[in-house]
Structure formats: structure tokens, C-alpha cells
């Protein structure tokens, strides 16, 4: 095993890439994993200094290919070397030209942040990389899941990202949603935006919130994420939109892959593929608790250090709910999230 790693480090030919790919599928210990990362870092360092290697930004990924953008703004169709485990919109990479507007991605820079969701097997699937802001889009239809909204917030808090809550189609009958957002979320410091395609002024406010950030739009299918992006970037002809299904009121997926779009006044946004939920299963209970800002003054006051904040005696958070310092609705969503992901 060690000998093979040394061979990879000495030579970067195709045979060694295949060996690396085979080895990456085996179970490795922490020491072997560290060696792999060191080899990748050394290779990235060598490609950065190569005259034929160039930096690029991933716009979208499809199968073993990706569309990237070079420093001049040109779009390049690239294949992906087998040793690169995953690429998503927002990744910064090193690539080498191979023909006109074609190339091969040979290395990926470390990510500052990464957003992911569970795939069909329940495993973590990256959606967007190097983001600085999450735009959580909600609407009256499909029916708003408060626990889902709070899971977006927990993820943002965990990644130290700014999060903005957008009530789209607010001109339609939204019941008490707007009032609830202003009551439970605005006092916690979360920015709220209210948008409608019938009111162009609301899009100006959204554009201001997006400026100088790399933002990812998340929300249930049918809430209008792609329609919002199409309104912000009318010149992008490949943004697909669709109406809500009248039969299910769930909405149809209009995006197959995450895609990054540049904003005219600086920054970028990423349209994500129907992100209905984010995977929080990797988080310990303490990190989920930290994702609720109003819990923090009470979480260290529980009598027992291993308090689960559900049925443990003398729980300070439960006492805060009973006294009205924590809203019952937010606490209920906390219970749903912990029961879903901490099994």
C-alpha cells in the first residue's frame, strides 16, 4: 500500500491515476488518508506552477465533465481527472487546455464551505461550494414546512454563513406566514425579503441582498427559486421555470444540476437542483442546538450535561419554552429535526 502511494507521488501518469482511483475505493485509516491528501496537495502545487495549468471556476457539473470559466470569462468544456472525488458549482479548480475551448480539470482547491443534501441512498451529496450566503425561499404553496426552514438555518449557522429568508409570491394569500416570519425570525436577526414577480421593486431589494455574496438558493420545489433567478438575470436563457402541479401542489423540478450565475453588480448565485432538505445527520446534538440562536443563553444551564432537551429532567431549554422565552413553534421544529437526523 505504502509503495503504491510513493509511486503515485513520483509519477502522475494515467496508470497511477487508475491506481489512485482503485485505492480510493478501499477503506483507509487516518494515516493513509493523510498521505492521500498530501499527495493531492503536492500535485496541486506542481500544477499551479506549470505554464500549461490555469485556474478556473466550475459553473456546472454533468457526469464526468464540467463547464468552467477561466480568468478571462471564457467558458470551457472540461473532462475531469479520475482522482478528483467530486465537483460542484462554485468549486475553484486547476485545468489544462486540450484543444479549442476544451480542457481537463486536474485538481481542485480546498473548499471554504460546502452545502450538501442527502441522495437517494441517504448519503451526503455536495450541491454548492465556496458560498457565503444561503437564500431560503418559502411560499404559501407548496405548504411551508417550518422544520425544513429551520434546518436551512441550522446549516447556515454551522457553516458560519449569512442566511436570508425570502417569502416569494407574497401578493397571494399567505395566511399568517408573513406575520409569523416577522414575529419569530426577524427578532433573531435573520433578514426577511418579500418578493413577487408582479412587483419589480421587490426584485431590486433582492439584488441588493445578493451583491458581493456567493449565494445559493434553497427551498421546496414550486416555491419559485428558478423564477426568481430568471427575474434577476433575464439575459440567461437556460434558466427553466415551471408552474406548481395542480394535482399535488408540490411543484416540478426545473433544474437538473446546480449552476452558478454571475451578478452584474458583483457576486454570484447558484441555482440548486430542487433542494427540499439538507443533510444534518453528520451533526451532533450540540451543533443542532447551536443552530438555534435563542437556545444559546439556556443550553448551558441544563442540570445534566447529556440533556437531550426533550425528556431529560430540569432542562433549561424546556423551561424557557414554558416561560415564553423560546417560541413553541421553533422548539417543535427542533424536536422534528433531532428525531429525524439523530437516530
TrEMBL record:
Cofactor: Zn(2+)
Subcellular location: Cytoplasm
Binding positions for GTP per the UniProt entry: 168-171, 219-227
GO cellular component: cytoplasm
Source organism: Legionella jamestowniensis
Protein family (similarity comment): Belongs to the TRAFAC class YlqF/YawG GTPase family. RsgA subfamily.
Cofactor binding note from Swiss-Prot or TrEMBL: Binds 1 zinc ion per subunit.
A Pfam family the protein falls into: RsgA_GTPase
Name listed for the protein in its UniProt record: Small ribosomal subunit biogenesis GTPase RsgA
Gene it is expressed from: engC
Amino acid at each position: 500500500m505504502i509503495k503504491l502511494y510513493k509511486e503515485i507521488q513520483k509519477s502522475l501518469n494515467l496508470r497511477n491515476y487508475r491506481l489512485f482511483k482503485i485505492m480510493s475505493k478501499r477503506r483507509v485509516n487516518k494515516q493513509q488518508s493523510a498521505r492521500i491528501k498530501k499527495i493531492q496537495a503536492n500535485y496541486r502545487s506542481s500544477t499551479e506552477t506549470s505554464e500549461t495549468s490555469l485556474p478556473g471556476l466550475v459553473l456546472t457539473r454533468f457526469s464526468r465533465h464540467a463547464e468552467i470559466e477561466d480568468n478571462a470569462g471564457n467558458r470551457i468544456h472540461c473532462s475531469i481527472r479520475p482522482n478528483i472525488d467530486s465537483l460542484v458549482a462554485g468549486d475553484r479548480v486547476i485545468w489544462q487546455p486540450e484543444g479549442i475551448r476544451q480542457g481537463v480539470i486536474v485538481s481542485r482547491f480546498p473548499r471554504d464551505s460546502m452545502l450538501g443534501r442527502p441522495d437517494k441512498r441517504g448519503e451526503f451529496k455536495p450541491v454548492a461550494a465556496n458560498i457565503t450566503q444561503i437564500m431560503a425561499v418559502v411560499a404559501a404553496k407548496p405548504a411551508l414546512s417550518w422544520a425544513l426552514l429551520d434546518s436551512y438555518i441550522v446549516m447556515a449557522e454551522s457553516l458560519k454563513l449569512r442566511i436570508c429568508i425570502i417569502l416569494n409570491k407574497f401578493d397571494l394569500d399567505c395566511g399568517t406566514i408573513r406575520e409569523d416570519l416577522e414575529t419569530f425570525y426577524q427578532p433573531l436577526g435573520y433578514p426577511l425579503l418579500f418578493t413577487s414577480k408582479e412587483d419589480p421593486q421587490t426584485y431590486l431589494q433582492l439584488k441588493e441582498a445578493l451583491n458581493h455574496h456567493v449565494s445559493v438558493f434553497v427551498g421546496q420545489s414550486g416555491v419559485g427559486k428558478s423564477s426568481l433567478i430568471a427575474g434577476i438575470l433575464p439575459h440567461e436563457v437556460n434558466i427553466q421555470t415551471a408552474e406548481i402541479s395542480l394535482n399535488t401542489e408540490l411543484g416540478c423540478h426545473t433544474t437538473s444540476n446546480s449552476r452558478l450565475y454571475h451578478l452584474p453588480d458583483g457576486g454570484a448565485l447558484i441555482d440548486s437542483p430542487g433542494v427540499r432538505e439538507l443533510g444534518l445527520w453528520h451533526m451532533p446534538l450540540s451543533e443542532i442546538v447551536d443552530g438555534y440562536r435563542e437556545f444559546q443563553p439556556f443550553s448551558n444551564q441544563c442540570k445534566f450535561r447529556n440533556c437531550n432537551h426533550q425528556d431529560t429532567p430540569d432542562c433549561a431549554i424546556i423551561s424557557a419554552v414554558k416561560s415564553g422565552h423560546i417560541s413553541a413553534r421553533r422548539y417543535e421544529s427542533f424536536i422534528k429535526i433531532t428525531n429525524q437526523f439523530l437516530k
